[in-house]
């Protein structure tokens, strides 16, 4: 899907992929995987995550400050994203 971003993790980093770019940021080493997206709101993601030894829990990711720290204009980068999906392929 053209307006769809992908969220994934590898136990050290979370990756957010869209438009040929991959934004990576550190995550908890106990994160096993993201399970499902609850809500996407222009840079703000509510997601169910599974952590080692814990039940699934709701987690929040705010991409705006991450993008700003990378000198990426959040309004430009995020403007066309309509959906975020999780993929571990």
Describe the overall structure.
With 89 residues, the protein is mainly beta. It is built from 2 helices and 7 strands, in the order E-E-E-E-E-E-H-H-E. It has helices at residues 63-69, 74-78, and strands at residues 4-9, 13-18, 21-26, 31-41, 44-51, 57-62, 83-86. A hairpin with a 2-residue loop joins strand 2 (13-18) and strand 3 (21-26). The two termini are 16 Å apart.
Structural class: mainly beta
Helix fraction bin = 10-25%
Number of helices: 2
Q: What kind of sheet is the major sheet?
A: 4 strands, mixed
Output mean pLDDT.
95
First CA to last CA: what distance? 16 Å
How do the strands of the widest beta sheet line up side by side? 3-2-1-7
Unreliable segments (pLDDT under 50, ≥5 consecutive)?
Answer: none
Index terms:
89 residues, mainly beta, four-stranded mixed sheet, 7 strands, 13% helix
Q: Secondary structure elements and their pairing?
A:
Blueprint: E1 4-9, E2 13-18, E3 21-26, E4 31-41, E5 44-51, E6 57-62, H1 63-69, H2 74-78, E7 83-86
Parallel strand pairs: 1-7
Antiparallel strand pairs: 1-2, 2-3, 4-5, 5-6
């Amino acid at each position: 899907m053209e307006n769809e971003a992908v969220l994934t993790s590898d136990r050290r980093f979370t990756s957010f992929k869209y438009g040929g770019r991959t934004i990576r940021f550190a995550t908890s080493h106990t994160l096993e995987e993201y399970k499902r997206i609850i809500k996407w709101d222009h840079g703000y993601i509510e997601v169910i995550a599974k952590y080692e030894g814990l039940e699934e829990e709701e987690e929040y990711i705010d991409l705006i400050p991450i993008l700003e720290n990378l000198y990426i204009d959040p309004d430009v980068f995020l403007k066309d994203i309509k959906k975020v999906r999780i993929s571990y392929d």
